[in-house]
């Protein structure tokens, strides 16, 4: 039985990139041997185990065979006679198909180390095209490694997979997971460029025409980076909520839930943006009662981050639009000051009163606090 370090940990160490997780590959073992050694089985589709002390993942070497469409359409064969080279061959790109043994020696049958030196993202074998999730994975790695170039033949295979409808067979959970990982990278825009080049972008974001909107999208991503508010959730909201034709919040947002699986929170923010963008822009000019009612709609007193996230998104979209953005930022300042005041000066009410009386008293106190703060701006 031999154990190898594989995958991202090997790749990132060769690239001098910090990494946290380590994955191990076990050659020459059976599930029974692993269990007898104290490993805990967790794999549903193939044998994966957790180390009894470190809790790190150890997978038995395996091969796979395509039997149906999509990323789940595979039969796996795990056996002690599967070699390290056979296991590495099933992996997506060469820089992910490098292993390291316990003595520090590299096993690199597909020239991944050479491709790291040449800064190339290249598929391991023609079986790359059997898993459509790899279209998104390559796009994600381009965002992670923007100085790398995608091998011409790899891009050709990606285009073929998209044209054959394979990407549309992916589960929305897997598509969204890869998107969020890519949008978390420093050069997230590169992922969109790759998806556009292989024609997958219109499938995932049908409202974005890169021929028409690429500059607008790039500008928004750059502004988000400059403002240090970019993260995967925020950038996904940009892509879904912005009408890039007019650089405004899209009033008729329709998300293809068959392709993208959104969290309940992102869905809620999209609905709020659709309904209340104009009121948020003009928040500072509203009377105090309307301001407090709007904050209530955003569930401000339990989730104060929500209204600020919406304001920040609208602010970036309106960048450079004189009065509208000035008003929006004044409203943001007032809301943040209000939040700070509520944290430092807790509102107390007589709890012996009825529920309705408590609500009315709380509303009056919140209204008074907001009125005093707003008067400071007058």
Automatic annotation (TrEMBL):
InterPro entries: CCA_bact (IPR012006), NT_sf (IPR043519), PolA_pol_head_dom (IPR002646), PolyA_RNA-bd (IPR032828), tRNA_CCA-adding_enzyme (IPR050124)
Keyword Kinase applies: no
Keyword line: ATP-binding, Magnesium, Metal-binding, Nucleotide-binding, Nucleotidyltransferase, RNA repair, RNA-binding, Transferase, tRNA processing
UniProt domain Poly A polymerase head: residue ranges: 3-122
One GO biological process term: RNA repair
GO terms, molecular function: ATP binding; CCA tRNA nucleotidyltransferase activity; metal ion binding; RNA binding
Reported cofactor(s): Mg(2+)
Taxonomic source organism: Methylophilales bacterium HTCC2181
Residue ranges of every copy of the tRNA nucleotidyltransferase/poly(A) polymerase RNA and SrmB- binding domain listed in the record: 148-208
Alphabetical list of PANTHER family matching this protein: MULTIFUNCTIONAL CCA PROTEIN (PTHR47545)
Protein family: Belongs to the tRNA nucleotidyltransferase/poly(A) polymerase family.
Protein name: tRNA nucleotidyl transferase, putative
Source superkingdom: Bacteria
One protein family per Pfam: PolyA_pol
CDD domains hit by this protein: NT_ClassII-CCAase (cd05398)
